[in-house]
Amino acid sequence: MVDGDYAFLLKQAAIASGGAIYAFAFTLVTLALLDGATTVRATDKEEASGLDSGRDGGTAYD
Q1: How far is Cα of residue 4 from the mean position of the Cα atoms in its chain?
Q2: What confidence tens digit (pLDDT) does each residue in 2-60 have?
Q3: Structure pTM?
Q4: Distance of alpha carbon 26 from its chain centroid, rounded?
Q5: Where are the alpha helices (DSSP H) in 1-62?
Q6: Which of 4, 5, 41, 42 gives 46 a disulfide partner, CB atoms 3.0 to 4.6 angstroms apart?
Q7: Do 59 and 53 form a contact (C-beta atoms < 8 A)?
Q8: Is residue 36 part of a domain?
Q9: Are 48 and 57 in contact (CB under 8 A)?
Q10: What's the pLDDT score for residue 39?
């Protein structure tokens, strides 16, 4: 290290890792809540027929 010590680097790494873990956990909780309220994942039939027509009846590029 040029100026400073490794303790500061470790603190920064811990904070950055904590932020990534927090974002991941928040995303999982949010998806779980949304999945409880509405369907998040499309069915295989909707994927095969096209998501636009399966979800809202629309078609693209007619």
Answers
A1: 36
A2: 677 888 889 999 999 999 999 999 999 999 999 888 877 777 887 777 776 656 666 66
A3: 0.58
A4: 9
A5: 6-37, 44-49, 51-56
A6: 42
A7: yes
A8: yes
A9: no
A10: 75
